Amino acid sequence: MTAAAAHEPHPEIAKTPEAIRAALLPEERDAFDADCRHALGQAVEQSSLQPVRDVLDHWWRIATVTRHDPAAHRRMLARVDQTLTGQTPPRLRTWDELRTERGL
């Protein structure tokens, strides 16, 4: 990969339920579906599409981050899960430790 290719923008995700859902990690799709169903119910109650727009905006941002770096997003989800369940995340290494480990 060239340096220029590494900085090419990722194609934008359309703000449609189908496009957003396709860009999400499989483990997030059920939450997306539930949020969409809830927003649709609110839209009917309020006679406004704003709840649907809000949910699509929220999940579009998540889908955009996910598409940019799925592995980093998955690591973030794991850290959140560890924090919420009270598990101690593995100790992070200092810069000095990383340099020593890599022989720098």
UniProtKB/TrEMBL annotation:
Residues 83-104 are annotated as: Disordered. Pfam families: DUF6247. InterPro entries: DUF6247. Residues 93-104 have a biased composition (Basic and acidic residues). This is Uncharacterized protein.
